[in-house]
Structure formats: structure tokens, C-alpha cells
Design goal:
152 residues, alpha+beta
Length: 152
């Protein structure tokens, strides 16, 4: 029987988060309107976000790191550590999405659908990361018991 590899689902969620960074995260109705994405692209008139490296770019950077950690866990490469790191990164992504909302969403700026997609998929990634962690720890301890090493 094949064992479940939920790490691939976490990696897919991370890819969705990274791609959603190019979707509109902010919308404005001021001075004819505008929109902005997480990586700093602005179309029209937007009072936020300021130029430079910010929360949105950090979300994209951590999403790419989550892809690596989740894939490592799915492949069984340092599965315990990788799955634990994937869970930590997933939680940080949720916190950063909430922080992004708190920083930049105020009248006349409203949240765009890209922010909602990223935040909800990050929440799903947290749940899947917990599953990944349990699967990795159970598989590793089962392998030790089969080798005669006793309980882990």
C-alpha cells in the first residue's frame, strides 16, 4: 500500500500563494482608482504600498521556501525537519497575510481578491502541513521500529 505524501499538497498551496502575488491584492477608489499586487506592481493611483522590499515580497519569498520544504518532506529528505519547517513557514505566511491586510487596507483602499486567495490558501497550507508533519513523524518512527531500534 502506498503511503500518503501530503507534502505535495503543501507544495501546491505554496505555488498558488506565489502565483497569487501577481493578482490584485489592493484596490483603490481614490482619484480614478487603481490596484496593486503583492510584489509592488501598481496600476492607476494607489496611496499604498510604498516602494521597496515589503511584506508582499516577503510572502513570495517564504512561499518559494515553503515549496522546497514541502517537497523535501514529500520525498522523505529529512522528512521530520522539513515537515516541521513547512508548518512553521505556513503559519508565518498566514500571519504575514493578516499583517499585510492591517498595514494597507483602509479607506479608500480595499482588499482585492488576490489577498483573499493567498490568505485562504495559506490557511489550508497550515492544515496540510500538520498532516504532513504527522505523516513524516509516523513514517520515520515506523521505519525505526522495523529496523529494531525500538520506539522513537
Amino acid at each position: 500500500m502506498a503511503r500518503a505524501r501530503p507534502g505535495w499538497l503543501v507544495a501546491f498551496c505554496a505555488l498558488v500563494i506565489a502565483v497569487s502575488a501577481w493578482l490584485p491584492w489592493l484596490r483603490s477608489s481614490a482619484d480614478g482608482g487603481g490596484r496593486a499586487n503583492a510584489i509592488g506592481g501598481v496600476a492607476g493611483v494607489m496611496p499604498v504600498p510604498p516602494p521597496g522590499f515589503g511584506v508582499g515580497q516577503l510572502i513570495v519569498l517564504l512561499a518559494s521556501t515553503l515549496v522546497v520544504a514541502a517537497a523535501m518532506s514529500a520525498r522523505g529528505i529529512s522528512a521530520r525537519i522539513a515537515s516541521t519547517v513547512a508548518l512553521a513557514i505556513s503559519v508565518v505566511l498566514v500571519v504575514l497575510a493578516v499583517w499585510y491586510y492591517r498595514l494597507y487596507v483602509y479607506p479608500p483602499v480595499s482588499a482585492g481578491y488576490g489577498l483573499y486567495v493567498a490568505a485562504s490558501v495559506a490557511g489550508v497550507a497550515v492544515l496540510l502541513s500538520v498532516w504532513t508533519m504527522f505523516a513524516a513523524w509516523r513514517a520515520t518512527s515506523r521505519g525505526r521500529m522495523a529496523a529494531g531500534g525500538g520506539p522513537a
